[in-house]
Design a protein that fits this description.
By secondary structure, this protein is of the alpha+beta class. It contains 30 helices and 31 strands. About 30% of the residues lie in helices and about 20% in strands. Helix 2 crosses helix 27 and helix 5 packs across helix 6. The two termini are about 65 Å apart.
Length: about 950
């Protein structure tokens, strides 16, 4: 029978496994699973507590990263992680676990809003349509999700609790002594009682309501402030640093981004920097992701030092306080708040021309340079290769260790987002400072003795000398000397001196900045914040949540000329005056009062910061999550000291943003006693990407991959030769393949097998539609081993398998079990294929025990055909909760192994021996072998090296 002629095959074998048969089987079993609630994961209590037997089993909580429901739908690259977690979840159910595996939708986002701006259609309409389409596509893949637990972030019942969490964060502060968040009411009580001094020295009672609000704003974990932000006029919104590309443009839309000072909401994530670092050690995450988080947080130890200027001080943070005597100038970030204060009206006498930038006054020079710097991204500003630019402010500060007057510059390579936004420049020992000093003809003074032959006259050097293991030189003043000390000793000596003088102290600094939490958009969670007549922010009580989005006539924020930095946001919500201006009784004893609502919305990250908790208790309208349910699924336990999801699968692109934000929210909720798990995700696994070939014409434009003709190793589209490259799969590159297309041609089980068989899960791999047929044929052979293609009857026999088959079976069971546990799905499929091929080649009816075990082995990978064959084998219950086969160790170990015997390094014999043979026994057998005896030819033996059971090496005297 030919497998290449489907029409002939269907006539000769009417019960053959075909795409049509697969479609019928798959649809029927998907309906059964839904009706039966096959994948329902019971809770220990509440409305989902429906199976005490399952709850008594060990639990396993498996999650995928939140998908965004795109209007374009899925291509075959999207489900890679979803299929993988489904396979793993099915395996865990079959190994005795109560498995929670479900999927919701991260549905707020800019694409839906942009569509609404263009069409006037409400973003909820397009988003819900995209969700329904995605649900349909995912259902066809047979994913075993507990659908009772699914939700979307745009559901008011969901974002009620997103708003509630924001209120908890707003009404909290970080207690540095207790190292945890505490209710803001406790801080107020400390101020009222005098236990804690009020900043500024006044009593709490003497402060006005607005003054008290300002004081508390310096402590709240969610606070509004005027701060430098990334303003994108072309989008009409501000962006987080992570949403700005390396070339200073918006990640979405590719518009220019400028630095501007605006009042925005922020999350004080910096308060948790140490804990976010330390707790990484206990997480089972890829080391590369941990390293990215550590670098982003950027902990460094050093000192804060005050440089006096005009009766005040510029404070710098430095990790090289041992080089203070080498500081010959200072640099402030262009945005530094002291720049204008210390900029004089005229240039000081003797100012170098190169310092002024050609401007008549310091004010002109500073203003021009600030405008220039505002158009650059932080990455551009810190690029090592770029020419150093800057301008003299006209001011001089005093170096506190030697009293020297040193000029103060502004330069774009110093950022307000790190340290204090000011540096002491030690050009002899810092490459950037060296380049700047050369460009601006500034002194370069050696204070760390070079280990090469360049000498200590830094004016002759070609580059900076940087060392953390050298002797300090030229560093002595009236009452402190560092000369002759090593770097570590010098740091300690100067830090102690600074602290004694009251002009500095040892401290720790972080690269991490507070999280910008405002967006000037419509399609996002409204802030549960109102402002009274004095401009004081108040959080809404829980009884007023959710605060739902109002209807607006125009969904777009006001956008501006993309290159016009001198603009400011106007949000869509601000144009609905009836919603903005309200009279409310907040339950604070003041009765009904007029308020103005916050008109920014939360960023699209908000809903994904806590969704792992909503899956646990999705219908709870009284609490964020029931404590007993949260403890059951996510609480700390042996091997997971911080608790969290047992397996979290998603792309490595979320290494910093989502993962860091979610960890921060978990820690706040943990501190406040709402959850028992200070970490959201215990084990993280990053799947690779399915890539596809992109074909480009002579203009470089993509052409449809489906229309490409290959001839003699070249590729043509409509007769024109095109170039082929490997890239992402997507609609814009015209190389997307939909899951539906593969399911129509081969069935969902084939698609599942192919995606899992393409290679290791954590590496990227190219899609090849032509290769899908290999997994299709595997399923056809599996079907033939159980079902007669001509009659449809089951062909297995009630007989015991022979020993060869038993060994093939149990080796497969052992290997597949280990591979599925280790997420090595490609090798698990290879072992199933090997067993199936063994049965096919045997040419006889398959013994029932082997057929049933084979069906159970493939069930996590190809669940539809497994259900069908399990039923045909006479079982009336679903295969989903059957016990996964266990290998008999007697048949896993080979009956014999081949031992190679070498004499003088050359192979002289091969022996079939027991795998359990000892070194002594193997030596005796080898020396007695006639071929070995002949090779030795009576020579004495100097040494015998035995590596049982596979090697004996005999060295004659």
């Amino acid at each position: 029978m030919s497998e290449t002629n489907p029409a002939t095959a269907e006539v000769a074998a009417p019960h053959r496994y075909t795409a049509a048969v697969a479609a019928e089987i798959e649809a029927r079993w998907q309906d059964f699973w839904d009706a039966d609630g096959t994948y329902a994961a019971p809770n220990p209590k509440g409305d989902l507590a429906d199976d005490p037997g399952l709850v008594a089993k060990p639990k396993k909580y498996i999650m995928d990263m939140f998908p965004y429901p795109s209007g374009a739908g899925l291509h075959v690259g999207h489900p890679l992680g979803y299929i993988a977690t489904d396979v793993f979840a099915r395996f865990q159910r079959m190994t005795g676990h109560n498995v929670l595996h479900t999927l919701g939708f991260d549905a707020f986002g800019l694409p839906a809003e942009q569509h609404a701006v263009q069409t006037g259609e409400h973003p909820r309409v397009t988003t819900e349509a995209a969700i329904n389409n995605m649900k349909s596509q995912l259902r066809r893949l047979g994913l075993g999700h507990d659908k009772r637990r699914s939700f979307a972030t745009i559901d008011p019942d969901y974002y009620k609790w997103t708003q509630w969490i924001f209120v908890q964060i707003f009404n909290s502060w970080y207690d540095d002594e207790a190292k945890q968040a505490r209710p803001i009411s406790e801080l107020v009580a400390r101020f009222e009682s005098g236990e804690r001094a009020v900043p500024g020295g006044r009593s709490w009672d003497a402060l006005s309501a607005a003054e008290r609000a300002d004081v508390l704003g310096e402590y709240r974990l969610a606070y509004a402030s005027d701060a430098p932000v990334n303003w994108c006029p072309g989008l009409g919104t501000v962006l987080a640093n992570e949403e700005v590309t390396a070339d200073g443009r918006s990640e979405r839309g590719n518009f220019p981004v400028f630095k501007a000072k605006l009042r925005q909401w922020n999350m004080r994530i910096t308060a948790y920097a140490d804990r976010l670092l330390d707790d990484l050690n206990e997480l089972d995450w890829p080391e590369a992701i941990k390293l990215q988080q550590r670098n982003w947080i950027g902990r460094s130890e050093g000192a804060r030092v005050d440089f006096p200027i005009d009766g005040e001080a510029i404070t710098v943070f430095t990790t090289r306080q041992d080089t203070l005597f080498g500081a010959t100038y200072m640099v402030l970030a262009p945005e530094h708040p002291l720049v204008e204060k210390f900029t004089p009206a005229a240039w000081p006498e003797g100012t170098h021309d190169v310092w002024t930038g050609g401007h008549a006054t310091p004010a002109e020079a500073v203003a021009a340079y600030r405008a220039q710097a505002a158009s650059k991204s932080d990455v551009e500003r810190q690029a090592e290769a770029k020419d150093k630019t800057g301008v003299f402010t006209g001011a001089f500060a005093t170096n506190p260790v030697n009293g020297e007057q040193i000029p103060v510059f502004i330069a774009d390579y110093v950022l307000m987002g790190y340290g204090t936004g000011a540096i002491m420049a030690v050009p002899a020992h810092d490459a950037r400072d060296f380049a700047f000093a050369r460009a601006f003809e500034l002194p370069i003074r050696c204070v760390v003795e070079p280990s090469d032959d360049r000498g200590t006259d830094a004016s002759t050097w070609d580059d900076a000398f940087v060392s953390y293991d050298a002797k300090i030189v030229n560093s002595h003043g009236e009452d402190v000397s560092l000369d002759g000390l090593g770097v570590t000793e010098a740091k300690a000596r100067i830090t102690e001196w600074l602290q004694d003088k009251g002009i500095g102290e040892g401290t720790v600094n972080f690269r991490l900045r507070d999280w910008l939490f405002s967006r000037q958009r419509y399609w996002g969670e409204p802030f549960p914040i109102v402002y009274d007549e004095d401009g004081i922010a108040h959080s809404l009580p829980e009884s007023m949540l959710p605060l739902e989005l109002p209807e607006v006539e125009d969904y777009s924020p006001r956008t501006f000329d993309p290159d016009d930095a001198d603009t400011s946001p106007e949000t869509p919500l601000s144009r609905n005056q009836d919603w903005v201006d309200v009279t409310l009784d907040l339950g604070d004893g003041r009765g009904p009062r007029p308020y103005r609502r916050e008109t920014n919305t939360m960023p699209n990250w908000a809903g994904s910061c806590w969704y792992e908790l909503r899956y646990l208790d999705p219908h709870n309208s009284e609490k964020l999550v029931d404590p007993e349910i949260e403890q059951y699924w996510m609480g700390p336990r042996a091997g997971q000291p911080h608790g969290g999801v047992d397996l979290y699968v998603g792309g490595a692109e979320h290494a910093v943003l989502h993962l860091l934000y979610a960890r921060f929210w978990s820690k706040v909720l943990y501190d406040l006693g709402h959850i028992s798990s200070p970490e959201p995700f215990h084990k993280l696994y990053n799947q690779g990407m399915i890539q596809a070939f992109v074909y480009r014409d002579s203009r470089g434009f993509p052409v449809p991959a489906a229309e490409i003709e290959e001839r003699d190793g070249a590729f043509f589209h409509n007769g024109e030769q095109v170039k082929r490259e490997l890239g992402k799969m997507g609609k814009s590159l015209k190389n997307a393949v939909t899951p539906e297309a593969i399911c129509e041609e081969y069935g969902a089980d084939t698609l599942r097998l192919y995606e899992m068989a393409m290679g290791p899960l954590d590496v990227s791999r190219p899609w090849d539609t032509r290769a899908v047929v290999g997994q299709y044929r595997l399923l056809q052979r599996l079907w033939r081993n159980v079902v007669d293609e001509a009659t449809g009857e089951v062909t297995v026999v009630d007989a015991e398998p022979d020993e060869t088959t038993l060994r093939a079976l149990h080796k497969a069971i052992d290997g597949v079990r280990q591979d599925l546990e280790g997420l090595r799905f490609n090798t698990a499929i290879a072992k199933v294929t090997e067993l199936n091929n063994h049965l096919t080649k045997a040419g006889a009816a398959v013994p029932r025990p082997v057929a049933e075990s084979l069906v159970l082995l493939i069930a996590p990978l190809a669940p539809h055909i497994a259900e069908e064959l399990w039923r045909k084998l006479g079982h009336t219950d679903s295969v989903v909760h059957q016990d996964f086969p266990v290998a008999d160790p007697r048949y896993v170990v080979d009956e014999t192994v081949t031992c190679v015997v070498q004499v003088k390094g050359k192979v002289k014999a091969r022996l079939e021996v027991s795998p359990a043979i000892s070194d002594d026994e193997l030596e005796k057998v080898a020396l007695a072998d006639e071929k070995v005896v002949a090779a030795l030819d009576g020579a004495d033996i100097r040494k015998v090296i035995v590596r049982a059971p596979k090697l004996v090496n005999i060295v004659p005297a």
